[in-house]
Amino acid sequence: MKLVRFLISREGFISVFCYTITAVFSFLSFAPLSFPFFVWVAPFGLFIIEKRNRGEWKKLIYHGFGFSILFYLVSFHWVYHMTTVFGGFDWYLAVPIFIGSAVLLNFKFPVYLLVFSFLAKRVGRFFPLIASVSILLSEFFTPQVFPWYFGNVVAENQILAQNAEYASAYGLSAFLFFVSYYLFYLRKPKNFFQLFSKFLSKHKNIQKKFLFAGLGIVLVLVLFFGNGYYLFQKWSAIKPIAERDVLVIQPNAPLEFRDGRNPAEEIRNLMTRIDTMTEMELKKSPVDLLVLPESGIPFFTTHDTEVTRYSRIYWHQFESLMAILSLRHGTNVFYNELDADLVPTALPGRISRRDVRMYNSSVLMNPNGERRNSYQKVFLLIFGEYMPFEWMYALSGQTGQFAPGTNLDLIPYYESRKNPSSRTKDLHWEDTMTMGPAGVREYYSKDKVEEKQLGSFLPLICYEVIISEFVRKFQGDPDFIVNVTNDKWYGNSVESYQHHTLGRLRAIEFRKWIVRSTNSGTSVFTDHLGRNIDNDFTPIETTAVIRKKVQVIPGEMTFYRLYGNLLSYLYMGIVGLVLLFYAKRNS
């Protein structure tokens, strides 16, 4: 009842209006709508609530939860779809999970209000550094499974986005709140005329304060826009050392079969579809790399081991088709699969189900149809690939029980076959009914080429691409980044565009192209400046192919790859000392 009375009161109306400003304007500023003007006023809702409730800690916490829930409803409404489809939860469990995750995973809002209010009370004056350092603290130290930082929204501006090479999304968040707080202060004509009158004042002390404040905002704007422009020009002039022809197949594979469809028939149709789409695209024009998405062929593996046969995930026809694709067209094939091994504590000589570990894995097959390096997903998705507590698996039959991988090596790929196949009749999916992997390789044995490594790429599965701190742990200098994902769990929603846009900054941080391969859309190629090539996105919930020439940018360890979030930490430390000085002086 208290909540209802609050919502129908004047105070409640103003509060909900403030929540809406931040939630809706942030959403409008971000992909796929991308109206960048709104981002500069999106923080106003937070500023108004903090100003009206400064020092009232309990109210600020409640208001922070209000921002969290409304922000989640507007921007992350697809999480409910994921919870019911991906997680398999009934609605009466999905609703509390949605609300709980809205609060927990957007805890940055109450933290921001508390930190901002605390520092503002201590300093006791207009000080935009408070706004920027507060957002840094709240984004750094709060849990976020889908880390949509305000800096990612600023990065919709192509020039400002280049600053991510040094400061990642965190630095852009600090920049946004610094500028936005100035705009918030000047939103009233009275404040603007007060500043102007102070400038005309005869008191030198007042003039110095005005000049200091004015020069501060000008310096920050020049720094970010100037550096962004410089980096944009610098990297635009870089000449690639090579180009790789890459084809992405988007097969729109089924997620599950709870609707009564025949699994065997659906999988046969899927394999035929992949085979046909590949041949139509490559029959006359081969590529260096063919990429299939996460769960492009679900439920199975091509890794033939005692453990995978025991687990019934090895399927010889899957391996045969991948060998056919690589041998028929003489190309590298990178595809996703399940994989399995035994825990270190397993007893030798026998296999039990509790000793088996499952992995979300991607593997490369070379132009000779031979299985080479694989990558097991390290950063698993909660409620989809694992549960935080063992007892929770009983709530959802859909949730996987995957183990995280440990290897962060790049994936080598090899020189493609230059000549067309010598066979007068090529193999297709239907031939896998009677011909195993060894038979396929024997059939194309005359087309075998010497294995020469052409380069390597950085493999990422699903949401790993949006975790900048994780991606920079990979060692070596990749030619480009390949992100395979399955966004079909979210239906025809904005999630796929948001997912890509959050990952797009990795292209700038690494100065490498990104190949994004999705099961059902949106697949896209992004260059080292963070630009989506030809703005060519595949449609959602359909089959499609997309093919581009990927440029290999000369290897250079960027500042972010070398030092990570060092600048943000330095900024928080320096501003913290400045604020401490003001707080002590005021006390």
TrEMBL record:
Membrane topology (UniProt): Multi-pass membrane protein
Pfam family, one: CN_hydrolase
Subcellular compartments: Cell membrane
Keywords: Acyltransferase, Cell membrane, Membrane, Transferase, Transmembrane, Transmembrane helix
Domain of life the protein comes from: Bacteria
Pathway linked to the protein: Protein modification; lipoprotein biosynthesis (N-acyl transfer)
E.C. number(s) listed in UniProt: 2.3.1.269
Transmembrane region(s): 7-27, 61-80, 92-119, 126-146, 166-186, 210-232, 562-583
Residue ranges of every copy of the CN hydrolase domain listed in the record: 244-554
InterPro entries: Apolipo_AcylTrfase, C-N_Hydrolase, C-N_Hydrolase_sf, LNT_N
Known role: Catalyzes the phospholipid dependent N-acylation of the N-terminal cysteine of apolipoprotein, the last step in lipoprotein maturation.
Similarity comment: Belongs to the CN hydrolase family. Apolipoprotein N-acyltransferase subfamily.
Protein name in UniProt: Apolipoprotein N-acyltransferase
Chain's gene name: lnt
